[in-house]
Each structure stands twice: as C-alpha cells, then as structure tokens.
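Dock farnesyl diphosphate; give full complex structure.
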Amino acid sequence: MGLFFNNKRKKSEKSEEIIIDKTNIPAHIAVIMDGNGRWAKERNLPRTMGHRAGMDTIRKIVKESSKLGVRYLTLYAFSTENWKRPEDEVTALMKLVVEFIGKEINELHKNEVVFNVIGDISKLPQVCQESIFSAKEKTKNNKGLTLNIALNYGGRDEIVSGVKKIAQEILDNNIKVEDIDEQLISNHLYTSGMPDPDIVIRPSGELRLSNYLLWQSAYSEFWFSNINWPDFTERDLHKAISDYQNRNRRFGGV
Ligand code: FPP
C-alpha cells in the first residue's frame, strides 16, 4: 500500500478518485524535491530550466498544503553536498531562491504563511541571506502554514551543530550531562518547536533519504513516486496524503 510507482501516469490513475480525510491531515509534510535535472534533460533544456520549473511546483504545492490545513511544509532545496555541483548551477539556484522570495513573499504573506529557512545560511551569498532575513521578518507573526526551505541543509551537519551547542551549554554550567534527553536534542535542531514530519515525500524514483531530517524522520511515513518534481501536481499531493491516511502508524507499538 502506498507505493505509487509509475513514471508515465496511467489513464486509470488520472481518473481514480482520491479521498482525503480532512480531519486527519498530516501536520508536517517534508519533501525532497528531486528530478529537476532529469525533467530538463528529457526536454533538451538546461538543468537550470528544470529548477525553474521546480519553483513553479513549489508555488502550487505551498498553496494546496495551505488550503488543506497542513501546519508545516519542509522543502529540500539545497543540501550541504550540493556545493559540489557546477558553479553556474549553484549560482542559478541561489538566484532562484532570491527570485522566489521577491516574487512570492507578498502572496505568501497574504495567505498567512510563515517563511522560514532551515540550514546553515551563513555560507549563502549575502543577497540571499538578506532576502531570507527580510522574508522571515515580514511573515514571522503570521498564523498559517510554516514553509521551511532547507538551504545548505544536511541532517548530519544539523546534529553536529546541535551537539556543539549542547556541549557549550554544559561547559557554561547551564545544563548537566544528565539533562540530555531526546527532547533536549530536538530543541537544539533547526526544527526546534516543530512536530516531526508525518510523511516524507520523494518524487523522481530515488529511494533514499539523502541526509534529510535524519533525526526528525525516525517515525515518518515515506512516500515515493517516479514523477519528477516539476511534474508533481496537487493531485500527487492528495494521493500521498490519502496513502498516508491508510497506513497504520504504530510508533514501535503493536
Ligand atoms: C534536485 O533535483 C533539486 C535540487 C537540488 C534543487 C531544488 C530547487 C528548486 C525546486 C528550485 C529553487 C528553490 C527555491 C526555494 C525557489 P536534481 O537537480 O538533483 O535532479 P536530477 O536528479 O534529475 O538531476
């Protein structure tokens, strides 16, 4: 149940009715936005055009998640490993982040979205940091969906930086070793105060976590599909949510 695994959508899938229980919407949905490069290659376009098309999908999925009442949507946009990509692609991605904020922030604000970034933004270009800062400031008191964009994010890097902060607090005599528990560690991650993701969605056919939300996804449901991110639609989101609602989450119990 739940593995939706067809690159080309079958006719029956297009017409199949998707039923969502509006009383059991996942509070936190995390997405690995994969397949932009392949989407572009299939169309003989430069990879950056795939990222641009992926940006249009972000707009649609944020809107739909907001409408459904999802509380947190966390999108993996740039990992700590993505610096290894060609310089022009890295530059284009950073420019797209600035463009996205510039074009979308008023609409996001109007829809009560809280804009947030998880990851080490100190390594991002100055212009990027500035636009993130102003978007966060503008939307910080909103009451709707929190949109987390993971930028220069790595799950291991996040845990390392959390451990360093905890160690420093022990050295400063603010906490004791005995105070370390799961909650304390959660509180020292970028997602402090947020619920763990209920579901992690990865389109494009790759079946791995790629250093995403390692601590937080301990009990997440995983949902994979072969659709590339630029082709991902509101209907795919509905399908993922509906499959999630039909799973039996036991959290280690029976
Ligand atoms: C993975 O696909 C995608 C990324 C590394 C970048 C995701 C970025 C966006 C969707 C747009 C920019 C972000 C914002 C927040 C506006 P890939 O390039 O690895 O695809 P491939 O595996 O098919 O090559």
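Observed: Helices lie at 11-15, 36-42, 47-68, 87-110, 126-139, 155-171, 182-187, 234-245.
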